[in-house]
What does this fold into?
Amino acid sequence: MSSSSRCRVRLWFGPHQISDYIGDQAAATRYEAAMRRRFPGLEITSDPLPVTARPADYSPADLHR
It folds into this structure.
């Protein structure tokens, strides 16, 4: 799986991130759809990861928008 086809899906309760999922594009799309059905009133963001992104590149500071 190449990092260019990976996405990050996050679920937000106001300013608080309550879920963070990183996976290949197809799995991330399914996860996003499931979260939208389960939590229709909450904000959900989905962003492609940069080619150079690695999970270790994310710090606790990245949890805030």
In short: The first helix runs from residue 25 to 38. The helical segments are 25-38. The beta strands are 6-13, 16-24, 43-48.
